[in-house]
Amino acid sequence: MLSRVAQQGDNTVPSFVIPVSGLRSFFTLLAEANAAFVDFPESSLRVEVRDSLALQQLAQGIQRGISEVSLPSEWIQQVLDTAQEWQSPTLIFRASLYLPGHSEQLEGLLPSHLGLKDEAGVEMALKGIWGELFRARSLFYWQQAGIELKQLRLAVLVQPIQSAIASGKVEVENKIARIHATWGLGHSWVRGEVDPDLYIVDLETGKVQSQKLGHKLIHYALDPTLKECLQRYPSSEAKLREFALEEKPLGELIQLVQEVTPKGHDSRIEWTYCQSLESEDAHILITQFDSFLPKRKSPPLQEVLMAKDRQDSLFVKGIPASPGEIIASTYLITGSVTALEQIPSGCILVTDYLTPDWLPLIQNAVGVIVEAGGLTSHVAIIARELGIPAIVSAKNATKLITMGETIRLDGDKGEVHRDIQPKPEIAKVLPETEMSPSPRKEIVLGTDLFVNLSQTASIATAKALSVNGVGLLRSELMLLPLWKQRSLQEWLEPQYQEELVANIEELIIQFACAFTPQPVFYRSVDWRSADFGILSHSETELNPLLGMRGTLRYQYHSRLFEAELQALKRLYEQGYNNIRLIVPFVRSVGEFSFCRDRAIQFGLTNYPYFQLWLMAEVPSVLWLLPQYQQAGVQGIAIGTNDLSQLLLGFDHTQPELATLIKQQYPVLSAFLKELIIKAKQLNLPCTICGEVTQEYPQLIRDLVDWGIDGISVAPEAVESVRIAIAQAEKKLLLEAARKQLIIDK
Fold first, then answer.
1. Residues 688-698: pLDDT tens digits?
2. What is d(CA 1, CA 266) in angstroms, rounded to the nearest whole number?
3. Residue closest to 636 by CA, chosen among 686, 589, 672
4. Whole-structure pTM over 0.70, yes or no?
5. I need a surface site. Which of 135, 158, 266, 546 has the fewest CB within 10 A?
């Protein structure tokens, strides 16, 4: 297919092919050199593939045999002569495998090999690419797919290779192109070491429908002076914040895809963006191309390979984000925001990524499966609050799950099954049935137990939990339904200001009314461009965690905060005096003072029950707490999600870092102890409302011991945390009684 594209005059990397006959000749060479390969590959090489030791031993034996064979010098010289005119000192050998009667997706099964343009480099790369057919992973796949070794027809595509500015792949399906792009050579995304940028493009118009910045921590480049010419480098801070393709090369790639994809066909393209060896100009070049008629896809390679590790009907696994089990049909979404508007109720939503503006639609679903995200992502928080099962970081979920199929989602284990029989020990969650809370013996606590909320649909369930109020009302998630009506940028225009205030008031009043006279701690919007850029069409923040967010943003863009203050004032005027205001991500006393002055300006401080708290999320709060108190802080709410990131230096949204974060738990615990004790010394009320008490149940005993005033958790954790608090308080009372008994004696 690549040669046809080249004949059309489109930008392709020059290449030549070592035909299938080269592989056959290599088999003959093996048989002549080693008697063990006399019947190779006609012998079936059958082995129990689930016996990993036997499989590895067989594969290693074949690889040793291949390494011991020397290729004829004329073979190597023929490759060098053909590649002589290429200026690049390095060659790449790509597998082009044809399997008659099979249509399996083989991406990633046979990786490419690099070699310097000399005798040793060519021999090593050729034996490496032919040897890939007999790795343990490949042998497992051939046997599972019922493919005989003699059916394997492997040609080798040889191309010059040079360090690239960017590279990636394009998947065209139904006139929609999904463009993946990363820095440097494509080895990083082939090996799964980066999360590439993603562009969704309508090929009929050439317009980019959406784009998402990836996580490109590393990149690969060539260094021909080294024996291992492919080198791995960390990406610079600037590259981490930038898309790999600027407007011009992206437009060039889109035009190229439009030109080479035959009408009515889908296609798969690999590309590179590199500087020309003849000039300083950079161009998009196609390195691999395949075109095919649209048809129902066979199970992808990943699904077959996962069969080795799965049991029974398990075929997708992720991180448990919200407990429960549900059996329902699926609704698949990959990339298109507009498609979300048609999501039917009562289904399990399966998607690759959920941006904040899509989250209100979760309320229509009975379960959620997301390929990205962590335990503290927005989707995980809302799913736990709504009480619907959810798993995140479910790799390849959108490839393995098909639209409309009936599956069983197990949010407790983070598993998806095609066996739709529910587990007998777990009650099935029915979409039309509200599960009433089970009767319990009332436990009286000395420590306040609050609930974290954001969705009005959760109020009735949360109120029945017998909590002391709402410890954290997440405004960002509560206000999301408003952004469906118009963008945040439009809402902030003067003509919509009154309507915006009225909407905020209407939402908050539902929580205030339901929980009165218990307090509702409303956290004003922590407006981060990473979350809300798509809502407001605003700038892309270079570093959303540490950039223009929290109370700092209020000083530059105050309209939304002022609308929140105006709504709170109206609520107090109506007699709802149980609302407390928490300002988020405060980095300095000056930022807090700005918020206090605005509250005074709106007359909120005239109401005796009004309180102004701050979220303790920045580690400097420990040392600034006396100054904050002097500036008028009336309490602190510890937000452990951001606090742990800044204190430990780990991004809590990356599931692969969870183990590292847990290793540093003693550091977080020591910091919390010192902060709570200092708050008690200053007579400042102190609560904690992050996810940390659910991740580390042993922390609850310590929090009670240090004197925490309140703990706020997701609705599904209320009962377990209630019991843990009661046990901690009982133990403290018992210890105090014993000490008093000793003193009396």
1. 987 777 667 77
2. 13
3. 686
4. no
5. 546
